[in-house]
Amino acid sequence: MRRIHRLLFLFSGFLFSTFFISAQTTIKGVVTDAQSGDPIPLVNIFPTGTTQGTSTDFNGEYFFTSADSITTLQYSLVGYLPVVRKVNPGKSQVINVKLSIDVKTLGEVTVKDKKNRYKNRNNPAVELIRQVIDHKKQNRKEELDAFQFEKYEKVQFALSNISEKFKEKKYLKKFQFIFDNIDTTKIPGQEILPMYFSESIANVYYRKSPKKQKEIVRGTRKVEFKDYIDNESIEKFISYLYQDIDIYDNNVMMLTNQFVSPISDVGPIFYRYYILDTVFVDNTKCYKMSFYPKNKSDFQFQGNLYITFDSSFAVKKDEMTVSVELNLNFVKGLNIIQEFSEVEPGQWMIMKDEISVDFGIAKKGMGIYGQRSASNKNYIIGEQMPDDFYKGEPKVVVDTSILNQDAFWDKTRHAPLTKSEQGVITMVDSIQSIPEFKRFMKLLDFLIVGYIAVGKVEIGPVNTAYSFNPIEGSRVRLGGRTTRKFSQRVNYDVYAAYGFKDEKWKYSLSTTYALGKSSYDRWPLQNLKLTFQYDVKIPGQELQFVHEDNLLLSIKRGENDKMTYNRTFNLEYLRELVNNFSYNISFQHLNQEPTGTLYFNPVSYYGSENTRVSSITTSQLDINLRYAPSEQFFQGRIYRTQTNNEYPIYQLRINLGVKDLFGGEYTFQKVTAGIFKRFYLSPFGYTDVLVEGGQLFGKVPYPLIYIHRANQTYSLQLQSYNLMNFLEFVSDRYVAFNINHFFNGFFFNSIPIFKQLKLREVVTAKLLYGTLSNTNNPDYQDDLFKLPVQENGTPLTYSLEAKPYIEISAGIANIFKLLRVDVIRRFSYLDHPNVSEYGVRARFKLDF
Questions:
Q1: What's the gap between Cα 814 and its chain centre?
Q2: Cα–Cα distance measured from residue 815 to residue 178, given in angstroms and rounded to the nearest whole number
Q3: CA 682/CA 663 separation, integer angstroms
Q4: Among candidates 165, 201, 162, which has minimal Cα distance to 182?
Q5: Torsion, CA 776, CA 782, CA 785, CA 791, rounded to 10
Q6: Strand residue runs (E) in 579-637
Q7: 3-class DSSP state for residue 750?
Q8: What is the DSSP letter of 269?
């Protein structure tokens, strides 16, 4: 019996020890360069004595799990000395490793003063990259006369870094089915929950001369949050964030910023290169080269290049990411993989193009994972399509009847969907039927947009519900508008406001009718719009993307008691064309009545109120022309936000005043033209330049000439003069220059505290030249209005005859990732009343 007990004891001990040894072993960590501290991608990690394991990602991070009894892990990469680390079997642990360069293998590293010093001179890696640069033109697909191919593309967005604690939240009890769709393959060691998915298949045609590209979309399918999210805006936002990357370009646009390409003409100035090995990629012998930015905070990539081992020096494959120290907001990880194939002798074409970004406010915690994958095949080189083929829109969907047919997609997509990709479509349809989800989305919509949805209308915006000014005192406003649930063709937008000081009601009624194929808020617009409005206005105030009665703008510096009551009738026709040219033709009838301390006093005014002019009336025809090549934008619920590119934007505005038409009192013509251009100067940031000018023909009082854009709020207005007072300057001829340069941290990245806070520098210069001809100068014309003055007779409004108006500012942007603060100095006309030489203004903006 004792022998049986001993056998049972030994057997149970054996089972216990077996369980302990075979328990799951989980290891994660980061592998970095021992000298530079840079993360090292693609390090091979495997249990000693085996060849099966894992590798680090582009941030040097790895995650390894095994049920086998392992005691050591080996870390190795060509060009580095291997490292072996002990492992505690059956436990979760963190092992961070530093690898030292094997100087015997890397001949391009120069040993000097007992330290490894990187040099471009006599560096084989730099000589190799210069060969790649010299052969860029012959390897670019755009140098071909013509080509065509089939492209399959899919886009996925998901919640990343899903934790068990999050899954157990009480408010998610009714949503537990969504966790059946968890994916653990996209980010090693993390669970992601797909929330958006789209796929498309298209034929792409390119011609070099004259340059044309046409994309015929044969099918597209996507999940839709129909009542809550504008899928068209999502698609445009995705296409902007995930623009096609051409590594052969000197600069690569990524996440609204320009990055220096590792094979840029100036690449050796900004990158360090190392030849690691010669390897075979799809039976093609290649040099394997790693590259890192010399300043890890600048907009540059890091990763690996695989360069063909022949005289073409073509890129066979590239693997790119960014440094964790990069001055980039809301990005926890970024990976780019591109693969090329030689479709004809000497013709290398991209076959795989994958961009993955893990977005998040903080490095730890949940985020949003986005991935765009493109697969190309069936290349045909040299075959040109007829000229008529390229006419019309550059992207055309030819058949919508097949969009959701599984049989079509099973046949045409280049690779099968993963389980989570297949499940996301069903999951999204299910989640939208849950009442709790609907309530949450309505709350989120209100917090972001400021409108409360009530059936087919929206009430708001909330930020204009209360405001105040010297004329109206406290002002309350209630408004609303119809949505596309009410009609795709017709939109109504109304509000009523009341000022408790002037005891007057103000109102606006606007009706928009869509004449074209699109709805009233979808590009390309073809709308007819009618507006009746009665409200107060500050002459010379023009705000960008914000209502004038916004509560936050109620606080203003200096005096702000010169306004007009404007009674407006406006009828306009807007037409947008697919080539990004648009025109707007409108008729406006406007009556302006001065209020506060603003008066329309003729020069012959003798001090009696009976001789003052109570109001002026104009009837005018306006023509606005705009051309913005290759422009992209996001159509919001209130405003349309354009995304700038390297192409200029041209604008021309013509105003024709007609006397005696519906009571119009003046005949005049105004011609105003402007051009905006963004210049990318990577890695030094970019410069926005706006040049505009105007000329008025005719004799009119000062309310009808150019009243230059002033700003007395404490909000930084990009297109206004932030230290100019309202009504301070008027002209009938002017030219203006507005220059903003954004350094994107180029200098701050070298200063430790600024680098850690990821601050960015910006400088601005604004110059305004103008004249006031004798025809419109009340000093020479008795029948014009006097320019505004103070009660003591001191002038308040001036011409710019003596010298230009100049203000220059220097600012710090990206404060807390959303705030820009500028210190502004005014250089001219400092003797004018109530002006400041210096000022501080702030502006909120979210950007990458």
A1: 14
A2: 37
A3: 55
A4: 162
A5: 120
A6: 581-596, 616-627, 632-635
A7: helix
A8: H
Type and span of the H or E element at 757: helix 752-757
Please give the single-letter amino acid code of residue 576: E
Residue 276 near residue 79, CB atoms below 8 Å: yes
DSSP string, 174-204: GGGGGGGG-B-SSSTT--BEEEEEEEEEEEE
- Measured CA to CA, the distance from residue 638 to residue 480 in angstroms comes to 12
| Best CA proximity match to 812, nearest among 822, 802, 804 | 822
Kindly state the helix (H) or strand (E) to which residue 821 belongs, with its residue range: strand 819-826
> Do the bridges between strand 25-33 and strand 97-99 make them parallel or antiparallel, or are there none, so unpaired?
parallel
Measured CA to CA, the distance from residue 336 to residue 246 in angstroms comes to 11
Burial of 10 from C-beta contacts in 10 A (0-12 / 13-18 / 19+) = exposed
State phi, psi for 612 to the nearest 5 degrees: -75, 155
Contacts 24+ apart (CB under 8 A), 520-526: 520/488, 520/489, 520/490, 520/491, 521/484, 521/491, 521/635, 522/232, 522/635, 523/576, 523/633, 523/635, 524/575, 524/576, 524/577, 524/578, 524/582, 525/574, 525/575, 525/576, 525/582, 526/574, 526/575, 526/576
Chain segment 195-223, per-residue pLDDT in tens: 788 889 999 999 988 888 999 999 888 88
d(CA 117, CA 108): 10
pLDDT at 548: 60
Say if CB 443 and CB 460 are below 8 A apart: no
Span 396-447, pLDDT tens digits: 877 666 666 788 888 899 998 887 787 777 777 777 777 777 777 777 777 7
Question: Which tens digit of pLDDT belongs to each residue from 236-272?
Answer: 777 777 778 899 999 988 887 889 999 999 999 999 9
DSSP character for 828?
Answer: S
Q: Where are the beta strands (DSSP E) in 524-580?
A: 526-537, 562-576
CA dist., res. 223 & res. 154, Å (int): 12
Residue tagged 């693969």 (tokens): 339
Q: Is the pLDDT of residue 632 over 60?
A: yes
pLDDT category at 554 given cuts 50, 70, 90 is confident
Cα separation of 39 and 32, whole Å?
4
> Distance between CA atoms of 232 and 635, rounded to whole angstroms?
8
Please give the Cα distance from 340 to 357 (Å, whole number): 22
Q: What is the token pair recorded at 9?
A: 């004891």
The SS3 of residue 577 is coil
Report the run of H or E that residue 444 belongs to, with start and end.
Answer: helix 435-449
Positive or negative, the CA dihedral 638, 765, 738, 563 is: positive
Q: Is 247 exposed, middle or buried (0-12, 13-18, 19+ CB in 10 A)?
A: buried
Q: What is the pTM of this model?
A: 0.80
Looking at the chain, how many residues does it have?
A: 848
Q: Give the type of residue at 85.
A: R
Residue pLDDT, tens place only, 767-799:
999 999 999 999 999 889 999 988 888 899 999
SS3 420: helix
Instruction: Give the model confidence (pLDDT) of 140-159 as tens digits.
Output: 888 889 999 999 999 888 88
Give the CA distances from residue 720 to residues 251, 372, 731, 839, in Å, rounded to whole numbers and listed in that order.
32, 39, 16, 14
Angle at 813 between CA 366 and CA 724, to 5 degrees: 140
106: tokens are: 């890397």
* β-bridge pairing 649-657 and 581-596: unpaired
Residue 545 CA neighbour count, 13 Å, CB half: 16
Domains present along the chain, CATH in parentheses: 21-99 (2.60.40.1120), 630-648+669-848 (no CATH)
Distance CA 684, CA 300 (A): 12
| pLDDT reported for residue 13 | 43
Cis peptide before 524 (omega within 30 of 0): yes
